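ARCHIVE RECORD
Type: protein–small molecule complex
Small molecule: magnesium ion
Source of inputs: curated submission
Record status: active
Notes field left blank by submitter.
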Amino acid sequence: MQAQQEKDYTQKFELSLWKKLLHYAPRYVKHLIALAVFMAVSALIDVAFPLMTSYAIDRLIAGNADAPLHVMGHVVEGLARLLGVTNMTAFIIVYALLVCCSVATIYAFLHQGSVIEVGICYEIRSLGFRKLQELPFSFYDRMPVGYLMSRMTSDVQRLAETIGWSLLDLFWGAVMLIMCSVTMLTINWRLGLAVMAVLPPLGVISVWFERRILTAWRSVRKTNSRITGAFNEGIMGAKTTKTLVREEMNSEEFNEMTGEMHAASVRAASLNALYLPIVIALGSLATAWALWRGGMLTLKGLMTLGVVQVFVNYTVQFFEPVRNIASTFSELQAAQAAAERVITLLETEPDIVDTPDVIAAFGDSFHPRRENWPELKGRIDFEHVDFKYRDGEKVLSDFNLHVNAGETVALVGPTGAGKSTVVNLICRFYEPTAGVIRIDGVDYRRRSQLWLQSNLGYVLQEPRLFSGTVRDNIRYGKPDATDAEIEQAARLVNADAFIRCMEKGYDTDVGEGGSRLSTGEKQLISFARAILADPRIFILDEATSSVDTETEAVIQQAISKVLAGRTSFIIAHRLSTVRSADRILVIEDGVIKESGTHQQLLRLKGSYYRLYMSQFEEERTRKLLSEA
Ligand SMILES: Nc1ncnc2c1ncn2[C@@H]1O[C@H](COP(=O)(O)OP(=O)(O)OP(=O)(O)O)[C@@H](O)[C@H]1O
Ligand SMILES: [Mg+2]
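STRUCTURE (tokenized, with ligand):
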């Protein structure tokens, strides 16, 4: 019922994972380096300001000529000597420069951060989209759509944010912390050590809290993805739910999930509420200590007011990185889980791949080498084919079938017999687990998938339309088709009449997935689409099951015209559709039970005969009833 369970991830920070991720977005490495440099500069400027203030207080305001000069003091007085100006003027120049630098670096790192965030998002999403297009049918059997969607949207977003901001925040914090500590220790190591004594307890407390907060958030996220899954199913299955009167049961299940989420969220919030005051209290303690000890030393003439100000300033500044480091680490862990999921997706190897020599000769899906493609004539041979779905039972075993180019073959038989499986194998959506399928006498694995698939027309029972107009949808497989060609294809399948009756004719918007059309209308349009592409092999899997018998009869005529000269497979439950096929195969349990023309099979008086008779009876009764 529910979307793929989210795995639990290790707490360890894995550098290799992040490296791999950057490997997917190599263009952004230089932006990252630039960002790191800007952040380091920005941290250094933050450390320099209190030293400037200290110089101003001691030398310029108090006029204390004996007050010790620290780094910035040397810079100011050096500049004064160099330019031959007063210390005051030099101070103003340096201060102004620092402010400008600060503004510039802040602008630069904000800009770089956004470039990285947006860029990585874009890059990984395009890779992911491409990957998802490349992966074969069998992949989608295993992966719920909701799962894939959240990988490509929220996970990628989270990753990009983390790389763009959190990772660098960590770097900024580290530079800040180190520079503050070093400066304090050089100015007055005793007071420096005393102030820094709060760091170890703060570290321990932070780790303790963050672990717990993180666990609570994980559980929130896990429940959240289940809730999203439930929403998804709830919306998609609204009709089914209503008709089966499942509302109450579904609501109960849903309430249980939201309850869990609520409890975990409250836990996380309470922990957070407790953690912050503790950090602030510890920070204030250190500041108070710096003020008190510094004050005492000043009174004794052992320290200047300016230096006390430096300490107080640093103790205040210093706690922010510590707090950040703790929370950023937990963010990183969450993002790491996202990274793992996204990378797993990007690294999924398709089950069906063209071998390197095939790609060398015929190109891949994105760079086909059409000039080397042989013409497809349409002979198809199944030789001793075995097949099972990844985690299913064997569907076909030792299946043999030989179809001549241009032949029309119909597959009939009970539900689950393996009819769709046979045509899926022909399309190479799946490959045989044993045996070979030859097309024009050559094992189809020795040709590219694209070669085969661009020669295929496939109309399904559940036709898939895409958002856009009717015209766009028919044109989908042949982007350079003219309007006249499109209309001709529509006329051929008798879709022209109903399309013209629509509000805007061929320019009518079909809605998302064609939701504004009936299933029968969608089938007709996808039929026109398949015909337009002029395929050598044509497959109709229950393609006419949703149109009325009259329309079907008209399509039937069209089909016989369209199918002439093409190898085609028609799967149908309604036997009237298959009567005119060159050969009809009755498939039961993955085995060809009977094979022959309509007349031959009727004479055989076997499964086909019984099936036909029962449908014939039904049809006649219906006709009589409607006439009556
Ligand atoms: N994607 C899949 N993964 C696992 N098993 C599958 C998958 N698709 C089909 N099967 C199984 O393979 C068997 C053959 O299915 P198939 O779809 O070929 O039947 P069918 O003859 O086309 O039936 P229908 O007339 O209902 O369309 C069934 O037992 C089905 O459960
Ligand atoms: Mg089927």
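CURATOR ANNOTATION: Residues 247-299 form the longest helix (53 residues).
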